[in-house]
Structures are given as C-alpha cells and as structure tokens.
Design goal:
With 430 residues, this protein is of the alpha/beta class. It is built from 15 helices and 13 strands.
Length: 430
C-alpha cells in the first residue's frame, strides 16, 4: 500500500504500522492515544495499555479522550514488555512518568528482539518542574516529543549539557488542541475556572480560590460562572487531589455558579473567559482564541507553574478580573509555545511522523542507549529500576492465585494512598 501525500512526508511503500500505547493516568492516556494517531499513518491499528497503579483511570475517563482507540488493557510493566515482544509492535508510545519510561527503556534494551519497535515519549503538558530529571529519565527513546519550539530548545540544551545525544528531540505540539475558534455570543457571558488536582496543594490556598470564584459570581449575577473539575468523586488523576473543590464547596453557592465535569473542549465551546493558575487548559483555550487569564493571587512561583506564563501577557489577579480586565496574549509568546493560533497546527506533527517513518524504513534500529547506566548513575539508576521490578526480570506469566493476591495487595495499597493517607495528613494539620 502506498501512503498518501496528505501525511506531509514523501510517499513510500509501507503497510500501516502497529502502535502500542502505554499510559499511567487519565491525562497521559489522552496524550498518548492522541499522539499515536497523529504520528502514525491513517488506518494504523492502535492498541492501548494502562499501567496498573494508583492513578489507573476509570472507564469514563478513558472514553472521554475520544481518540477512537479501543479500551486499553490494564497491565504491569513486565506484562507490557511481554506483549511488545510477543505481538511485535512497530511503534511504542510511552505516556508515563519519567522513572517508568526509564525502567521500560532498560527493559526493552534487555529483551533484544529481532526487530525492536520505535519508541516515542514526551510530556502531557506544560513542563514547569524537574526539567533535567524528567528529560534524562526519558533519554534513550528514539523520539522525545517537545510540545513547542520553546520546549525543543530547552530539551536539547539539557541533553547537550550532559554530553548526551539530543537528536531524538522533535518539535511537535500538544496533540489535543482543536475545536472551533472563539466566537462571542450576544446572549452569553461565561467565565470558567479550570481546577487542577495539585496546584495549589494547600487546603487554605484552594479555599481562597474557591472563595474568590464565589465572590466573582456574586459580583456578576448575570454571568454564568463554572468551576471545571478534573474528576468525579472516586476517580483519580495524574496527581493526588487531597482537597477536592467539590468537598470544599459544600456550602450554598450563588445560583449562577455551577460545578461541571466532562471534556474540556466541550466546556470551551461556551467559554468567554478561561481562568486558571497554570492548567494546560490555558493552552487549549489560547489555541482557540478564547480569552484567558493566569492568576497571580498566590504569587508567581515555580511550585504553582504559573511562572511558565511569564511574558505571555496573561498574568493577572481576581481583583482585576472582578473589575472587567481581560488579558491580551503576546503573539510572539504564543508562537513560541506551540499554541498554533495562527493556523499552523495542521502541520505540527509532520516532522514527528516523518521521523517515525524514517526509523521504520531503516534496515535496523540501533540498540536503545539511555544516558543513565550503571556507569553514569550507579547511585540512582538501581533505585529507579528496582521500584518497577524490571531489574529483577519479573516473569510476565504468573499463577492465577498469585495474580489475585497481587491485585488485592495493590488494591489495599491504592486505597491507602488515595484515601487513608490524605486523612492522616489533614489530621496532622489540626
């Protein structure tokens, strides 16, 4: 089958490739599944896997992505490696935290199949912390996707700064940007606050933001004010949410303030101002031309991630928003951040797709060679691998009894991390 030229790369004889995606949370599944669709030829079958752990997403969270990928199968890291070896995937997309990516890279390197898959990884959103740590843990993948020109420069600088090969870094964009351009409606005035699970983390800070949102709704009784939540009760996200807004908002709310769930794109369809501390939802809104504000009320701090928006023109406070201020984004900042508000998004993944196809067309792929080895990081790497049990070569096949006991133990652990530990921490604050 000859690939059509709509791929943005030269045509070549190549059957549709088989892609496997492994994710460890709802947002990373969204990034991984949509990335797989954008970097592979049309019609390529995509098989999904989710890593069994604390943040394993629910069926609803998985379906909300809309990537036209069948429900993923829950696996351990060793079981995933076994599936890659047995089913001979052409491309593997690792949508995981950095340590897990590193462990799987070493696991893939140790398998040495006759023809290994092309390995692709990256970040689900704004990279505002642990830049060097996260990047070096991802080194060894064939393609490390950068979501913007800004990120591509930073990624290459980190790799080159330690003397590592930086050729895997490929500039792309966030794969979930899209939707209709913003068009004001005469009978609509909607402000949306995009909540984040762990930013800010302290209960007092989250209570403050909620109080200001309530005050904003009361100051503007004819304005619809929405608190967009990331998850429903009982669901878990990439980051642990110790103080959910739905629990903080138990008192009476203004009639024009509502808590909403669901797909962010559908909420943005009716948004006239998107307010956040540092959510990736800001980039989704900016891509569509939706007015966007990034709050400075709790400071401009690395811990909050809003320092990423320095120079954007979007930094402001609730006081100014209450008074009618609407930030105007800086056009140069937008272009550098991969927002692609100028219409260039249609070609944003051409370079990544071309890189993948070139690697697939090569007679053989070089061995996976992560920067971290027993020689470069003897005091760090063993701990990373040990936490994922890949250094011990855990057998992919386990007995039914052992599997049941293992799953039960993980269930108890997950309950402790998600339910019991936050309660104990809150008691400690009293």
């Amino acid at each position: 089958m000859r690939l059509p030229n709509v791929l943005g790369v030269p045509s070549r004889n190549r059957e549709a490739v088989r892609v496997a995606v492994l994710a460890d949370s709802d947002t990373r599944w969204k990034w991984g599944a949509l990335t797989a669709r954008r970097i592979s030829p049309p019609g390529s079958p995509v098989t999904g896997f989710v890593l069994r752990g604390r943040a394993t997403p629910t069926t609803r969270q998985l379906a909300e992505v809309g990537a036209d990928v069948a429900a993923p199968r829950e696996v351990t890291g060793a079981e995933f490696l076994h599936a890659v070896l047995q089913d001979a995937y052409d491309v593997v997309v690792l949508a995981l935290v950095g340590g897990t990516v590193q462990a799987l890279l070493h696991g893939l390197a140790g398998m040495a199949p006759p023809r290994r898959p092309v390995v692709v990884t990256g970040y689900v959103g704004v990279v505002y912390e642990k830049l060097a740590d996260g990047l070096l843990l991802r080194h060894g993948a064939d393609v490390v996707l950068a979501n913007s020109r800004h990120d591509a420069r930073r990624f290459r600088a980190v790799y080159e700064g330690v003397g590592a090969d930086a050729s895997a870094v490929v500039e792309a964009a966030l794969p979930f940007l899209g939707g209709a351009r913003y068009a004001p409606a005469p009978d609509r005035d909607t402000v949306v606050f995009a909540a984040q699970p762990s930013v800010p983390a302290p209960r007092a800070d989250r209570a403050y933001l909620l109080r200001r949102l309530v005050e904003h709704a009361r100051l503007h009784p004819h304005r619809e004010v929405l608190l967009k939540l990331r998850s429903r009760p009982g669901e878990h996200t990439t980051h642990v949410e110790e103080h959910p807004y739905q629990k903080l908002a138990r008192g009476p709310l203004p009639p024009n303030l509502r808590l909403v769930h669901g797909h962010m794109g559908e909420v943005l369809d009716r948004t006239d101002l998107l307010v956040t501390v540092s959510s990736t939802a800001a980039l989704e809104a900016l891509h569509r031309g939706v007015p966007t504000a990034v709050l400075t009320d709790l400071g401009v701090r690395e811990a909050l991630g809003n320092h990423h928006f320095l120079g954007s023109g979007l930094l402001t406070s609730w006081d100014r928003l209450d008074g009618g201020h609407r930030p105007r984004p800086d056009a140069r900042w937008l272009a550098d951040q991969g927002v692609a508000a100028d219409g260039s998004y249609a070609t944003a993944f051409d370079a990544a797709r071309a890189r993948v196809l070139d690697l697939l067309a090569a007679p053989a792929l070089p061995p996976i060679a992560p920067y971290y080895t027993p020689a470069t990081a003897p005091g760090y790497l063993p701990g990373v691998l040990g936490r994922h049990r890949l250094d011990a070569g855990e057998p992919p096949a386990t007995s039914p009894v052992r599997r049941v006991l293992r799953d039960a133990a993980r269930g108890v652990y997950r309950h402790g991390v998600q339910r019991v530990a936050p309660v104990i921490r809150r008691l400690g604050e009293l």
